[in-house]
Each structure stands twice: as C-alpha cells, then as structure tokens.
Amino acid sequence: MATTTHHRVTNQTPPLSGYNAFRLNPLLLQIASGSNAETLKDFDQIGRYSLSGEAQELAEMANRNAPRLKAHDRFGRRVDQVEFHPSYHALMRRSVSYGIGSSVWEDAARGNTNGHLKRAIRFFMLAGLDTGHLSSLSSTNGAVAALMTAPHLAKEWVPRVTTRKYDSAHKSPVDKSCLTIGMAVAEKQAGTDFTALTTRAETVGNGLFRLTGHKWFLSSPMADAFLMLARTPNGTSCFLVPRFLADDEHNHINLVGLKDKLGNRSAATAEAEINGSIAQMIGRDGEGSRAIHEMQTLMRLDGALISSSIMHASLCEAVHHARHRKVGGRLLMDQPLMRAVLTDIALDVAASTALSMRLARAFDGARANDVEGTFAHVMTPVVKYLTAKIAPAAIAEAMEAMGGNGYIESSVLPRHYREAPHQSLLEGSGNMMALEVCRVFKRTPELFNVVLSDIESNLGDKAKDTSKVLRAAYELALDDESAARILVEQLAIAAAAAELYRLETGVLADAYADTRLGSNWRASYGMLGTRFDNQTILDALYPPVA
Ligand SMILES: Cc1cc2nc3c(=O)[nH]c(=O)nc-3n(C[C@H](O)[C@H](O)[C@H](O)COP(=O)(O)OP(=O)(O)OC[C@H]3O[C@@H](n4cnc5c(N)ncnc54)[C@H](O)[C@@H]3O)c2cc1C
C-alpha cells in the first residue's frame, strides 16, 4: 500500500544500500589482508559499487527485463541476435572494466602470483549484485585456460580477450575492442556424457573444420566465440567457433529459441543449430574433453564463489532485517531462536566463502607448489559440490527470516534463491562431482594423503578424529560409488573447518567444527545449541551498519 499522511509506515527495515560490501565483510577483509594498497583500493571501489543504489537498480532492471531473441531482421534476414536491456550492458561494462574476464591472465603475464585470489574477491562481491551478467565473463576467463593449450590460437585471441573495454557489437572479432567466449557442449540427447554428442566436424583444409549439429544449452549466446565439442572420426574434439568470420560474415550459429529457465533473468540461454560453422581445433583430435576440462575447472571455482556470494548477500539482508524488525515488541535479533538460526547459517556461509577462497589460493600456488596443485586438482569438484548443495537451503532460511518481505522479488532474495540450484547443475552436477573425486583417487590414491595432510595440519586437536572419519569415507566410497557423496561432503566440511582455523577465526572455527565435523547429521538450521555465544559470532561476521 502506498504511504499517505494517514498511514505512516513503521517497523520496516531501511534498505541495505549505499554501503561498502568489502568493508561490511570481515571474513573477506581478513582473506584480503595480505593485499597491497592498490589492490585494497580496487576492492574498496568494487565494494562500494556493488552495494550502491545505482548498481542495485541496474541489477533489478536487468532481471526484470529479460533478454529477447531476435532471429531475423525486419527484412527477413537471419541475424540470430539476443537483445539485452541497457542495464545488462551497463553491468557488463563495469565488470569488464574490473577485469572479471581478463585479470587472471593480465596478472599471470606480469608474473603476479595471486591473480586468482584477487579476482575471486572481486567476483564474490559482484556476484552478490547479479550473477547473470557474470556468466559470459566466467566462461571467458575459463576459455583462456583452454586456449593456452593451443599457442597459435592463444596468440591471436588472448590479447583481444584480455582487455577491459566492453564491446557488445555484432561483428567480426578482429574489429572488436574486447571479446567474450562461451561454452557449447550439451546437446538434446547428452550433456554429461561427452561420448554421446553428435555434432560433427569435417575437415575443410587449412586447419579448418566445418561443424554441423546442434547445441541444446548455450549460455552467453552473444559471445564472440564458443569452445564447442564435436565429433571427428577420432572421437570428441574441442573447437573454437567464432560467431562471425572475417568481414562480419555470419558463421551459421542459428538461434532457435531462448530457454524459459528458473535461474537469473538477466542472462540468456539459447538453443542453437550449428549449420556448417567454420572452426579451429583446440588440443588434440579426439581429446576434446581435456580442453573443455581446463575451462570447466575455472568455471567451477566461479560456481563456488557464486554460491557463497549469493548466500552471503541473502544473509546480509536477513541479519539487517532482524536488527530492525520488532515482533512482539522485541527485535528479531534479540529473540534467541532467530539468532541461533541466523548464526547457524552464518557458519555455513563463512565456511563456503573461506573454502572457495582457499581453492582460489590453490590455483595461484598450483604451478610452484605440489600440495597446492594437488589441492586444486582434487578439491575443485569437492568445493563446488558443497557450496552448491548448501546454498538453496541457506538462502531459503534467510528468506524465511525476513518474513513475507523476503519472498517479494524486490527483496532480491527470490533472485538468489532461483539461482542457487543452477550452480549445482552447471559444469558437472552433484553426482558428477562426487564420481569425479572417486575417479581421481582410484587413479592416484596417494593424492588422498596429500589432501588429508594439508587439512590435518590446520585442524589441531580435531585432526585425529576427522582423519578417521575421512579415511572411513574414502574406503567406503572407493569400494561402492553410491557412497561417493559421503566422502565428498566430509572432505569439503573438513577442508572448510581447516581453512577457518588457518584464518584464525577462533570461536567461529570452533563452532563450525563442533557442529559439522564427523557426520553430525542435521537437516535444518538452528541447531547450534547454547555452547557458543551466537551474538558474538554473528556480530563478528555481520557487523551492524550505521
Ligand atoms: C541455465 C542453464 C545454462 C546452461 N548453459 C550451458 C552452456 O552454456 N553450455 C553447455 O554446454 N551447457 C550448458 N548447460 C547444460 C548443462 O551443462 C547440462 O544440463 C548438464 O551438464 C547436465 O547435462 P544433462 O542436462 O544432459 O543431464 P544428464 O546428462 O542427462 O544427467 C542427468 C542427471 O544424471 C546425473 N548422472 C549422470 N550420470 C550419472 C551417473 N553415472 N551416476 C549418477 N548420476 C549420474 C547427472 O549428474 C545429472 O544430475 C546449461 C544448463 C542450464 C540449466
């Protein structure tokens, strides 16, 4: 109901807007504490932007005005374009300028060894604003890893990917200031199973191929190129397929529809026919899954960051609400059961955040340090698994804490809630993550001990019991794949607890470890009991805003 002079609105929460998302997140501040002044300035700028009223309005508009397919122009010629609302382009412009698709590779070229962690912190803050527009930047960042395995293509493409000047024009890549790259794997009959893909690739000479078939899910349909899987006589191979060829000639990636999907509304996911598109092979003939895996690995880290970020953003709103809303004459925050619920969620959000950032740190260290390399290799699916699995329940509970207001679109929580299951499905769904971990251990059993030692080294007096549980879960899962999720969940929780201890989070780490480690099965939030001072934990993680 609109406000009139006769109807003064009381007991409603002021908007959580105009603050700094970086400064409001003590855990993130701690994770970023080793950064230099220039990087901290960068984080501050993005922190202010992502909680500004202007950015929040852009995100809302981009999600209220979903992209539309424009298959033909007014003369009936195929154009295969998706039209986005200007707010989407504004979000893209900003995130490109913050280097979300490029900074890892800029840092690597400069010899900086913390590029993944720096980007992860920026990505985390921007994901709380809108996840949709980040999709094509996430795939672009990942695609560079795959391109690096094909030096001749990398030389041509990477310099045009690693710029910070967003260019949404529909034209040949050579004429653009900045490129984005999408992924095109899934088909109608197969998404998980790469061996069942049917899109065909025929050689046409000069190192070029012609691809014919279809793709059933194409996020970032307006990307300048796609890494696409297609079959050659030697098996499934990976190709770089530009959307336009030289002289702006259309490369016959024909869009036949946009998905009416559950998740964010700002990004489009298309169905496409591939009608003789010209492509170049990446990696070896018949080994396409290897090249795509390079891309997916980085996108899985982004998935973990998105899950953690949207949980955090939702809980920020819920905690803010509880500090302002009175029920029965008492602030919700002062009601013991509400505080226990919020604190219990906060432990999962902190663990997810710490674990995702731990993974980013492992990516940074992987080249120079074997333990970090093993952690990145083994734990990417583990981290993605846990963060994605807990996000829907955590966001739903945060939404409930806000009562009816949380359920309303403009509260943003419904947007985060819709997005949460998406992250579990993409780049390998839950079961695939669990099975992949078992496959890695079966192939190289010694990796389990490397990861276990790393976890144990930070767990202190909890190491012995945790180690026992993890070893039992390992034996079980390797013997019977139906137990794979048990191993992956326990590994993720143990690694998260270890990281919270490494970050010296004190009572927070104790509370997480005591309530989560060793298969303490709980189906809902609010089970913290009275052992921990939840007010202290919550205030430390979510300091009250002025
Ligand atoms: C919004 C959205 C955007 C997307 N964007 C893209 C994109 O840009 N590019 C792209 O290529 N794809 C994209 N996808 C597709 C996505 O990657 C696939 O949907 C996903 O890989 C699963 O494939 P599928 O749908 O064929 O399911 P299936 O392969 O049929 O699998 C169904 C379920 O069975 C499980 N399963 C499979 N094998 C086993 C097993 N052995 N044991 C136990 N469980 C098993 C899987 O984990 C999954 O949960 C997108 C999907 C969505 C929803």
Automatic annotation (TrEMBL):
SUPFAM superfamilies the record matches: Acyl-CoA dehydrogenase C-terminal domain-like, Acyl-CoA dehydrogenase NM domain-like
Cofactor requirement: FAD
Acyl-CoA dehydrogenase/oxidase C-terminal domain sequence ranges: 286-437
Domain Adaptive response protein AidB N-terminal span(s) in chain numbering: 11-168
Molecular function terms, GO-annotated: acyl-CoA dehydrogenase activity
Pfam families, per database record: Acyl-CoA_dh_1, Acyl-CoA_dh_M, AidB_N
Domain of life from the UniProt record: Bacteria
InterPro entries: Acyl-CoA_dehydrogenase-like, Acyl-CoA_Oxase/DH_mid-dom, AcylCo_DH-like_C, AcylCo_DH/oxidase_C, AcylCoA_DH/oxidase_NM_dom_sf, AidB_N
Keyword Nuclease: no
Residue ranges occupied by any Acyl-CoA oxidase/dehydrogenase middle domain in the UniProt entry: 183-274
Family recorded in the similarity comment: Belongs to the acyl-CoA dehydrogenase family.
Name of protein: Acyl-CoA dehydrogenase
Lineage: Bacteria, Pseudomonadati, Pseudomonadota, Alphaproteobacteria, Hyphomicrobiales
